[in-house]
TrEMBL record:
Keywords carried by this UniProt record: Transferase
Keyword Transferase attributed: yes
UniProt keyword Glycosyltransferase present: no
Gene3D superfamilies the UniProt entry points to: Crotonobetainyl-coa:carnitine coa-transferase, domain 1 (3.40.50.10540), formyl-coa transferase, domain 3 (3.30.1540.10)
Protein name: CoA transferase
Any GO molecular function: CoA-transferase activity
Domain of life of the organism encoding this protein: Bacteria
Organism: Candidimonas nitroreducens
Amino acid sequence: MSLRPAPLTDIRVLDLSRVLAGPWCTQNLADLGAEVIKIERPGTGDDTRAWGPPYVKDQQGQDTTEAAYYASANRNKLSVAVDIASQRGADLVRALVRQSDILVENFKVGGLRKYGLDYDSLKELNPALIYCSITGFGQTGPYASRPGYDFLMQGMGGLMSITGERDDLPGGGPQKAGVAVADLMTGMYSTVAILAALHERGRSGLGQHIDMALLDCQVAMLANQNLNFMTSGKAPRRAGNAHQNLVPYQVFAVSDGHLIVAVGNDSQFRAYCKVIERPELAQDERFRTNPGRVVNRDQLIPILVEVMKTRARDHWLAELERAGVPGGPINTIDQVYQDPQVQARGMQMSLPHASAGQAPVGASPIRLSGSPVSYRHAAPLLGEHTAQVLRERLGMSDEEIREFTG
């Protein structure tokens, strides 16, 4: 099959965002082929450049100046160091806006207005511009002016009330997720919104302002837990590694560690009962259907706990797979990258890097058969592409570039 260019190859993005939600969004766009110009503060750049250790290592195994956190969300981008607080810097950004399709920013509400880089100002220069603002609480509402951080959103948005061990068990209490899921989900929702606006622009010829809020995205991603509350009137609580709507769907201790059993329907439960040599449980009126198992969880789970302790992890996993019952190990991240399925899917890669030679990256999960994602280079050094962009995009001479960057 003859492959086509990546889907967004003809799209240009100005990235005025930093940390994670905005950069995650623009990295998605870059992977899909867009030219992403990351506008960074001279001298310091994106805050996450300093969020180390660990740092990307060079070919001698020594630390570079590039934090792994920063590298995780900025591949395929061009870095331009510009002081937008100066008149010349703001003018340069406006010149780039005239030839760009998308701008992504995560300044406080109204923070770019004083530089003339807010949506109302820039749409006069480029009516087709799609301008995505990412903030903690959105452009409206009583909290709009507050700064927003992922950790706060996991708490305010309800996630920490349903994450962690049950309150009546040792270790119970509020628990955040192991990665910044509110930031990441906002980046994903922002990507979807931008692609929708691009499609709509194909009809109208006009851009628009996209208002994305971390809190909105955190609340939305509660998914079935939202509807558990809305339909019952009762706020879901922490259930540890169990599931509020499915039983058994949790972690079990086995003779040499732990594993996950994820029974999703009644036929799988019948198969599971055969695996553990307790087929009568599937005929018990209390446990025969999932609603019954949810209501009678406290009677069923102790029986299963005792059975699962009798055999080793690999024995159970092999038997569950043979029976078609979903189950799996609990891998550390190093074990994840040793998994043959993860390796077969190519989820770890290396890309050219200006100071490291080659740098590791986590691959995009997007698989397109005809126009695959584009991997060009790892996260850029601060200002690595300033001269290139000023020359190629704005037609500046070498002397003008030296004057600007000097």
